[in-house]
Recover the amino acids of this structure.
């Protein structure tokens, strides 16, 4: 299992949740090399753009967006599914969630903001 590291932004996003919900999500959010090599598209997904790789973990109503570096899972953002459901609806895109986000400049700006935040 890889070590999970939250940055300042993703930690703040998690802290907005109730304690029980935080514990449930953290209990589910376990990432192994096998998970990343055998993405199921449901719980784990992968997005690539301009040579950058970002992974997605889906649990209940929440999405964790992270990168893997040096045996660490670095969580850039923790977002509610409604954050992007509305985007997809307004954009009338015929893609799945991961594909649409991979093409969205706004999404990558959110990730870059998380990437530049200090790690907790």
């Amino acid at each position: 299992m890889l070590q999970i590291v939250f940055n300042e932004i993703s930690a703040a996003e998690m802290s907005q949740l109730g304690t029980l919900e935080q514990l449930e999500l953290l209990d589910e959010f376990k990432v192994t090399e096998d998970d990343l090599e055998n993405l199921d598209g449901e719980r784990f997904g992968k997005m690539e753009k301009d040579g950058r790789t970002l992974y997605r973990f889906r649990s209940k109503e929440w999405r964790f967006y992270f990168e893997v570096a040096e045996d660490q899972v670095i969580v850039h953002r923790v977002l509610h599914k409604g954050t992007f459901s509305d985007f997809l609806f307004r954009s009338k895109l015929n893609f799945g969630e991961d594909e649409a986000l991979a093409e969205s400049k706004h999404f990558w700006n959110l990730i870059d903001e998380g990437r530049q935040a200090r790690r907790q």
Observations:
- The chain has one domain: 3-115.
